[in-house]
Amino acid sequence: MTPDNAGSADGAARGPEITAASPHDIPDLARLAAETFPLACPPHMTSQAVSGFIAEQLSEAAFGKHLADPNCDVSIARPGSPQAETPQPGTPQPGTPDGYALTLFQPAPPEIARLIGTTERVTYLSKLYVRPGAHGGGIGRALLARVREQAHHRGSRLIWLGTNQLNTSAQRFYERTGFEQVGVRQFLVGGVLENDFVYALREPR
Ligand SMILES: CC(C)(COP(=O)(O)OP(=O)(O)OC[C@H]1O[C@@H](n2cnc3c(N)ncnc32)[C@H](O)[C@@H]1OP(=O)(O)O)[C@@H](O)C(=O)NCCC(=O)NCCS
Question: Can you give the residue ranges of the N-acetyltransferase domain (predicted)?
Fold first, then answer.
């Protein structure tokens, strides 16, 4: 997969390299997901609920299933480097990943379909996470650009997501990047129902 951000000819520092995740990336993805998921959780969430969700939803087996799902796209961000060569498809890439995004192309559940106004297949942004030391460096925006590109290729003109009502930092990010709040939903984390805001981004026709 060719990186989205081509390097500069003069070897200057580059933005993140965003690639489609391959099976080689699964251990890195699971590690990064376990490290970053707690960042989106509200303070009242118990450590059992958090670790239960990580074990169920963010394990290597869970990422393996996602990568095998033709309606799922997983993108991974790694630091760009001036010397980096174009990675060959399927080969492991050097460098600790800084972030990842996971989307599902499918009809939204009925309660969400009512909020977004369509029962057609759309893009559900299920995960967008950047490791703590890399926040504010444009990686989230770069991953989102990749998600929008994938949505476009799949013929989806709408991206939706849920984020915890106490996760004001993510809310600011989504509002800054063009999403609008369209309602609320409840979301199960480790057996406990949490309250999310639902956001949607509609691409112009
Ligand atoms: C939310 C998250 C993915 C954003 O990624 P990021 O790489 O830090 O964001 P970027 O640097 O690409 O920022 C993009 C824009 O959003 C803005 N933004 C990001 N976080 C912000 C914040 N907390 N408050 C205000 N603006 C913010 C940036 O200023 C930037 O705007 P600009 O490009 O117009 O200057 C990242 O902070 C993260 O992983 N958070 C923890 C996990 C999480 O909550 N994920 C979302 C779960 S739904």
Answer: 16-204
What predicted TM-score, i.e. pTM, was given to this entire model? 0.90
In a domain, 170, yes or no: yes
Pocket of ligand 1 (CB under 6 A): 36, 39-40, 128-130, 135-141, 161, 163, 167, 169-170, 172-173, 176-177
> CA gyration radius for the chain?
17
**What's the confidence (pLDDT) of residue 158?**
98
The pLDDT of residue 204: 83
In the numeric block, which tokens belong to residue 199? 């956001």
**What domain count does the chain have?**
1
Looking from the CA of residue 169, the nearest atom of ligand 1 is: 23
DSSP state of 40: G
Length of the chain as a residue count = 205
What's the CATH code of the domain at 155?
3.40.630.30
Asked if residue 11 is part of any domain, the answer here is no
